[in-house]
Specification:
Layout: E1 2-7, E2 10-20, E3 29-37, H1 46-60, E4 65-68, H2 72-75
Parallel strand pairs: 3-4
Antiparallel strand pairs: 1-2, 2-3
Length: about 90
């Protein structure tokens, strides 16, 4: 699943969510990443809106969870945390 943010018909932000396989075989999980916002639009909460809306959409399709492919220091404010038992393969 991909979402974009447009300003005056120009794409200024993008986020992608992909299906992933969790090491214990649990189905219906997704990976968040990449996310990008054009430099001149950063600081306007576009990234926040993309993450929040994307996670809401995952909940609406009954996703079991979402793993992160990105910097935890940015994403921990959305409730992401490191789980040492989950392995990205």
């Amino acid at each position: 699943m991909s979402l974009v943010c447009e300003v005056d018909g120009r794409v200024v932000g993008h986020i992608a969510f992909s299906s992933v396989t969790i090491s214990d075989g649990t189905p219906n999980w997704h990976g968040l990443g990449p996310i990008s916002v054009l430099p001149e639009y950063q600081g306007n909460r576009i990234g926040t809106a993309l993450v929040t809306n994307g996670l809401s959409l995952l909940k609406s399709i009954s996703s079991k969870g979402c793993v992160l492919v990105g910097t935890l220091t940015y994403f921990n404010r959305f409730g992401f945390w490191n789980h040492s038992q989950l392995i990205h393969e």
